[in-house]
Specification:
2 domains, 10-stranded antiparallel β-sheet, 8-stranded antiparallel β-sheet, 1 helix, 23 strands, 1% helix
């Protein structure tokens, strides 16, 4: 299984990973990944579907709760800028902020980077506990997979009448993605025309391969070059030659089982409940901007002590923001 990597958060090709999960840091296993960004503050993306639960803290943290309803938190540390606030819904392509070296004074973080960690329920290493002694547990972001709520097969069937005939149209959208190819989707349409006077039928199939052009809020914008067509059945002898014209549009997720594609509301082929989306992964978007593909380096750090503050909720900041006094990032 593929989890969160530089690819998913929009930092592929910028120097890679400088420190991995579990590497020893001052006698304590590293809680996440350090991802380089070529030594400059660079926008990074969420890589998952979720909701922002915390922004701020001494380490410049954005914490996101995955949409799958699990108790997991994904934490992005050292942001030099943030682009979201608590309560925002985020998508794999949502820019959360920019990489940086934000940390308490004297922490000696000398390189601009993103520290990415996944906090899960339970107690982990003793040294991972908060400064007030609350236990915490973390898992390797690279092996922790979250669900992709767009991957899958979506369809809608429409029936309408025209002078002298009746149409039945079924549109099917297949969306899948991987770390190698990014996202791909295929749109097929089956159109059945019945001539009322004779009862003869014509069945045609159309296929388009849309290409993503941009992301806007919760929408994916795309353009579709001219597609292919084929006549499956023609008992009317009309020698119809349909065309699959080019076009453009957008799609957005309405809920776990409905997707709006252009003007159509499509249903997931197999309905699922939240948190049970076919065991899919979250790899919906790769890096968007060419600026993400450069090289860089990152120096190591040597953390010093700092005193976290308490939130009004009674949860100490180092628990929700994923850091504790004296940790090195």
């Amino acid at each position: 299984m593929i989890g969160l990597t530089p690819f998913e958060v929009g930092l592929a090709g910028m120097g890679g990973i400088s420190a991995r999960f579990g590497e020893m840091r001052d006698g304590c296993p590293h809680k996440g990944l350090d991802i380089r960004s070529s030594g400059v503050a660079t926008p990074f993306t969420a890589g998952i579907f979720g909701k922002v639960v915390f922004v701020g803290g001494a380490y410049g943290t954005v914490a996101v709760a995955p949409r799958d309803g699990s108790a997991t938190w994904i934490q992005y540390l050292h942001c030099s800028e943030t682009s979201v606030v608590a309560g925002d819904d985020v998508y794999p392509w949502t820019v959360l902020g920019k990489t940086g070296d934000t940390a308490p004074p004297g922490t000696d973080i000398s390189g601009i980077h993103l520290h990415l960690q996944v906090q899960v329920p339970g107690a982990g290493q003793t040294c991972w506990a908060t400064s007030s002694g609350n236990p915490r547990n973390f898992v390797d972001p690279q092996t922790h997979a979250t669900k992709n709520f767009i991957d899958g097969t979506w369809s809608v069937t429409r029936q309408y009448s025209a002078p002298g005939g009746r149409f039945v149209e079924t549109d099917e959208l297949k969306i899948f993605s991987s770390e190698i190819i990014g996202v791909a989707f295929f749109h097929t349409r089956r159109r059945e025309l019945t001539i009322l006077q004779t009862g003869c039928r014509i069945v045609a199939e159309f296929m388009w391969v849309p290409r993503i052009t941009a992301f806007s809020g919760n929408k994916v914008l795309f353009s579709a070059p001219a597609g292919s067509t084929s006549i499956i059945q023609d008992t009317c002898g009309l020698n119809w030659k349909p065309s699959a014209d080019p076009g453009s549009g957008d799609l957005e997720l309405i809920d776990d089982n409905r997707l709006r594609y252009m003007s159509y509301t499509m249903n997931r082929a197999e309905s699922v409940s939240e948190g049970q989306v076919n065991g899919g992964l979250h790899h919906f978007v790769a890096s968007i901007s060419p600026q993400f593909f450069t090289d860089g380096s990152l120096d190591s750090c040597n953390a010093k002590q700092f005193k976290p503050f308490e939130l009004d909720t009674g949860v100490d900041e180092d628990w929700i923001s994923g850091v504790a006094a004296g940790e090195c990032f």
